[in-house]
Design brief:
With about 375 residues, the protein is mainly alpha-helical. The protein has one domain (about 5-180, about 205-380): Growth Hormone, Chain: A (Up-down Bundle), CATH 1.20.1250. The protein contains 15 helices and no strands. Helix 4 (about 70-85) packs antiparallel against helix 5. The longest helix has 30 residues, at about 325-355. The two termini are about 30 Å apart.
Length: about 375
């Protein structure tokens, strides 16, 4: 496998190890320590994720124009990994919002150049495998992060702030890998000057346009994973065990991501993506119906399967249908559209939960996901 892809895999591993020491416990910290309501958590997550995705549009354009993959990734990963420990100093939900905003700002800068570099470093015949490998490493780090958080909480009498501080260590390792080990190919002088990025489909083909629109609809269903932690607690799971549920979810994703990516190389991305949307719909309906912690454990494991069927596959599919030199912009446009949908997704979920209960939030998402799968079948993208 190309050494660039291997390095990027380990960068993703350590970054997600750092991030997912925080993700499973942040909503619990907000509700139990800062006494924040579920609706406010929806606002925090909606703004944070939308910021990240919209910024991917601009970083994608800069990537195509300059070819500065490494510089953009250094800035993005550095910003995220240096701001996350500041959660330890937060005392209000507004402060958490600003820190989460900064973290996702960094994610918005780094993701498009990283994905474009993966796409450009792999042949079409192995692109699913390459994205699957990066996703598997990402998920492995995301699995070990909650496990580390569980150990720290168990040894420190649920000291959330200590987890936040220690998360800086793997984050710094990720940044060091970019600085010292990532070797990007030399760029030629034939890159075209481009107008500033816009949310437009000009010069993009019909398949990409259709896929982006259907994926945006699906994104309205896919609200923040922070709600999964709250649902686990609501169903009776002990707060100290919730990081372990996220460990199970991410291990499942890590195990299945590369095999599913290779499957998409053989049978095509489209049937794999349709299956992923259907799996998501079934799982979210299950989260809405869950009556016990035992249900939650099973659903978290299956949730990792959904990620394996969609996350890396979506990006590999875009790389297939968009020519080199436009992939950063295409992925940035795609991510910006997903980001615009992420804001109402989490806000609506928070409102439905707070007003009508968790089944209303998860059930609505399940129906929207099924609709997206049906549209993928009808339009044969």
């Amino acid at each position: 496998m190309n050494p660039v892809i291997v390095v990027l895999g380990f960068v993703s591993f350590f970054t997600d190890l750092s991030s997912n020491m925080i993700v499973p416990i942040l909503p619990l910290y907000l509700t139990a320590v800062l006494h924040v309501q579920v609706g406010s958590i929806g606002i925090i997550e909606g703004i944070a994720e939308s910021t990240a995705s919209i910024l991917k549009l601009f970083s994608g354009w800069i990537t195509d124009r300059t070819g500065k993959y490494k510089l953009l990734m250094f800035i993005g990963y550095g910003l995220s990994n240096l701001t996350k420990p500041l959660f330890a100093l937060s005392a209000t939900w507004g402060q958490v919002l600003m820190i989460r905003f900064s973290d996702r700002f960094g994610k918005g800068i780094r993701t498009s150049p990283r994905d474009a570099l993966v796409a450009d470093s792999a042949t079409k015949e192995e692109r699913g495998k390459a994205f699957g490998f990066r996703r598997a490493m990402d998920a492995l780090g995301a699995a070990l992060g909650p496990l580390a958080a569980f150990g720290i909480l168990a040894l420190s009498a649920n000291n959330y702030r200590l987890v936040f501080w220690l998360s800086v260590i793997p984050g710094l390792i990720a940044v060091a890998l970019i600085v010292f080990f990532l070797k990007e190919k030399k760029q030629g002088k034939d890159r075209k000057e481009a107008a500033p990025p816009k949310l437009t489909f000009r010069n993009l083909n019909r398949r990409f346009i259709s896929f982006a629109l259907i994926s945006t609809l699906f994104a309205v269903a896919n609200f923040s994973d922070a709600f999964l932690a709250l649902r686990a607690q609501d169903a009776g799971m002990l707060p100290a065990l919730i990081p372990l549920a996220f460990f199970a979810f991410n291990m499942s994703s890590s195990i299945f991501s590369m095999p599913v990516g290779m499957l998409s190389d053989r049978i095509g991305r489209r049937p794999v993506l349709i299956s992923g949307f259907v799996i998501f719909a079934v799982i979210y309906f299950g989260f809405g119906m869950a009556k016990s912690a035992a249900w939650i454990w099973a659903l978290f494991i299956l949730y990792g399967l959904y990620y394996a069927f969609t996350d890396g596959i979506q990006k590999a599919y875009i790389a297939d249908i968009v020519p080199e030199g436009q992939r950063g912009t295409a992925m940035g446009t795609y991510n910006a559209m997903i980001g615009i949908a992420a804001l109402p997704a989490s806000i609506i979920a928070g409102y439905l939960w707070q007003t009508f209960g968790p089944m209303a939030a998860f059930g609505t998402s399940s129906v929207i996901a099924l609709l997206a799968a049906i549209l993928m079948i009808i339009y044969r993208i």
